[in-house]
Amino acid sequence: MQRRRFLTLAGAGGAALAAPAVAQEAPAVNWRMPSSFPRSLDTVWGAAEFLAARVAAMTDGKFSIRPFSAGELVPPLQVLDAVQNGTTECGHTAGFYYLGKQPALVFDTGVPFGLTPRQHTAWLLHGGGQALVDGLYAGFNALAIPCGNTGAQMGGWFRKEIKTPDDLKGLRIRTPGLLSMVYEKLGAIPQQVAGSDIYPALEKGALDAVEFVGPYDDEKLGFAKVASYYYGPGVLELGASLCLAINRDSWAKLPPRYQEVLRAACASAAADLLAKYDANNIPALKRLVGQGVKLKGWPPAVMDAMQRATREVLDDYAAKSPEFAKVLASWRAFRDGQLLWASVNDGAAENYLMATRERGL
Length: 361
Known about the structure:
This is TRAP transporter substrate-binding protein DctP. By secondary structure, the chain is of the alpha/beta class. It has helices at residues 2-25, 44-58, 79-84, 106-109, 117-126, 129-138, 177-185, 198-204, 215-221, 248-253, 256-290, 300-320, 322-344, 346-358, and strands at residues 29-34, 63-68, 90-93, 142-149, 156-158, 172-174, 189-191, 209-210, 229-232, 241-247, 294-297. Helices cover 53% and strands 14% of the residues.
């Protein structure tokens, strides 16, 4: 009788010990996540909502992340600041917004004449890029997980036709970060204008051109009503990678299971965002052309001038910063290999398919 009582008590004690362990593996955690993007864009802002929903679904609601659109909690270009000082546990943003703080962060997002989304992911995951990026964000008491990509962005909207590089001189163009420096080298006058203010500036003539994202987002913002010429291809942004910036102290407090949940949710959000752009850009472009938008291709001489200017900007930064030079060297070497592979295989195949489509095959 006493032996049975002992075994019963021992079993109850084991259950009591096990319960706190399970609770520790799945505690209730509540984070706030400001975004650099407005609610009006169901693409990039939608990626923040998608991410939060995936985290909640994979933790039975125990790990809750509340997203805030641009300006609701912190200014859109101060998301990394909020993460760094612990105002928020994480933030949904893009590294190239913080060019003034750390120029090499542009490589986390993408630079002109750079990598496609697939190539960028390959550089980060298997080309040594993530280790370099981690080192950059460590200087801000943060880490960053890729969580989306816009794909190739259009060259932008212009009030007048661009036939030669000289047509860019004196042009007042809204464009961000390192790209603005490329335009500046070409004689344009870059303007830093918040997304919500772009349309009024174009409408009033304060801007001559704007570079934003692509057909689906640009259609929503109404640029076709005030600028007739729409340029591609997106050599200036073959992709723009978003990230989830996380305060390192907050990350360290997360159970390992939640850390893995965050990584998985970011990967899922990344796949969804790029697929959304690829699916929606073509119907949007057809609607824009149907409204009378003049779809134009960059003249080769203009793209050549842009590429030379990009090289100069990158080399200028590398000459001033060993840290920038280190990341640039890794990125350039990887890009060269990817261009070679594309010329041999998938890029060559895509070129063939486009050519045969035009021939009606």
